[in-house]
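[Automated response] Your request has been received and processed.

Submitted sequence:
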Amino acid sequence: MILNAKCEMTVATTVPTAIVMMIEPLSGPAQDILKSSVSIEPATPHVKTIDVFGNACQRVVLPAGTSVITAEITASVPDEIDVHPAALFTPVQDLPDNVLHYLLPSRYCQSDLLLELATKIIGNASPGYEQVEAIRSWIQQNIEYKYGSSGPTTTAVDTSESRQGVCRDYAHLGIALCRAVRIPARMVSGFLHQLDPMDLHAWFEAFVSGRWYTFDATQNQPRGNRIILAYGRDAADIAQLSEYGNLEMKGMNVQVEAAP
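Generated structure:
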């Protein structure tokens, strides 16, 4: 499917403020970016860079006052995600070097504190994809999706205890539980066609049988038609806006539509 996505953010600063944005994606195995642009009003120059995870970033110093940041993307994406229940656990010694760090605890994913819960959830599931699917299914069934129930400092452990959260929290918990049983997992930010209500979205990927697979605990069935903005260990690595000063988000509007 060809998707057109648009994200418009209105922000305000009291002094010139440096920010790093992750709102313009790159082509990759899961998508072909046909067109993308980032504009800022009032007109403000920005510099494109690539971070340590291979994500496209845009660096800018916003002037004092109100700015409107708009990202527009046209992408060709698969209608379905790959589902492979027979995909096997990859032993740690066989993992690629660039995957190993996705086994470690991170800021929001304290996998070292969740082994007992993870072991209980996976039960007798076959090592690999089936274990990850057991984790995804448990989160969907046991964590209440509730706006306002979490905040920017909420961790996977917090969510496991409160049993409430939003997509970010679902992803963090899934990642931490996978890592607890030695399955590499990473967070993904992006757009999901027909998400209701429409917003920027987050999910996770797990590495089994030598490749990454998509898992989304907010959905009751596998869904494709996703545009990926960034990958990282957790939300700290993939924030749409990282500000280094004084910035207030005044509003955000997200649209994702199938191209005619």
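Summary generated for your ticket: The mean pLDDT is 97. The CA atoms of residues 139 and 219 lie 10 Å apart.
If you did not submit this request, please reply to this message.
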